[in-house]
Amino acid sequence: MKLTKNLVFAASAIVVVGLAWVILSTDEADASDQRTNDAYLRAHFTAVSPRISGQIETVSAMDYHAVKQGDVLFELDNAEQKVAVTAAEAELARTQATHTRLEAELVNQKNKIAIAKSRVDAATARLNVASADKTRYTNMAEDGSGTRQDQENAQTAQIEAQAALDAARLSLTTEQDTIAIINAQLAEADAATQLANARLENARLNLSYTRVTAPSDGVVSQRDVRVGGYVHAGERALMLVPKDDLFIEAHFRETQVAHMKVGDPVSITFDSLPGEVFHGTIETFAPASGASYSPVDPINATGNFTKIVQRLPVRIQFDATPEQQSYLRVGMSAIVDVQVI
């Protein structure tokens, strides 16, 4: 009887040792099911900040309340921005009026040039008549049929007609040069109008920035704005936590991920939702271990070394109904099972 008991004990010991050897000699990565409880529900938060500085006039966003994209979260005092818009509108109107006046001057100047050209034509005709008279009276004086007085008067008339033509031509040149000046002023007015338009647009943008709206759907959290407070441009005012763009960040031991790949099916349970099983797939693998992002260098160069198995973050997308999503909260702990295929 005693011998039988010893044989049973010895056989049991051999079986236990054999199982232990099998377990220890089997590579963990070869398992078809990989599990971790180092997993959490994550989301990409949106930090909402005003684009301009100012005093807070109204606050519509309440902590933990859901908002839609475009909903007003809070508003800043906009009196200064309204004044800036009014001033920019007035400046634009002034530059447009200047442009209109210069266009009218350009039309008027073209009329002046037309008149100056007609005066040149008239002066040219008078000079031609005076030149013909001079020739005729000179010939008459030489053959005795005319007087020297008539010849001198005809010569004087020609000189005066030439002077009148020269003056008309100079006037035409002056009027034509004025066209170039007006065109340059018009170009300057165009540039001033464009600048005034840009300043008006900027003023209107700054006015619109006094109404801070939700850039996306989400739930308001960490609200730091209160009526009467002052915020600076770029300073975080609140956070928006998405409700439908959730994912799991699961941390597996480096010895587990050797055969995992994108697309492998995943089963997920949450500690706070017992009995609920969610299904998803591996979306991507992190490019480095969690310890690699630590501000303290994990490499030990002192000679005292203890090997620590590293954990690699794996991102998992999963399906959830709207009702299920209403119970999920970012940061919840999860248990993840990956079926390696």
TrEMBL record:
List the residue ranges forming a coiled coil, or say none. Answer: 76-126
Domain p-hydroxybenzoic acid efflux pump subunit AaeA-like beta-barrel: start-end pairs: 246-338
**Can you give the residue ranges of the Multidrug resistance protein MdtA-like barrel-sandwich hybrid domain?**
47-241
Taxonomic superkingdom = Bacteria
**Could you list the residue ranges that cross the membrane?**
none
**Which controlled-vocabulary keywords does the entry list?**
Coiled coil
Q: Which GO terms describe its biological process?
A: transmembrane transport
**Pfam families according to UniProt:** Beta-barrel_AAEA, BSH_RND
Q: Which family does it belong to?
A: Belongs to the membrane fusion protein (MFP) (TC 8.A.1) family.
- Mind telling me what this protein is named? Efflux transporter periplasmic adaptor subunit
Species: Alteromonas confluentis
- List the lineage, top down: Bacteria, Pseudomonadati, Pseudomonadota, Gammaproteobacteria, Alteromonadales
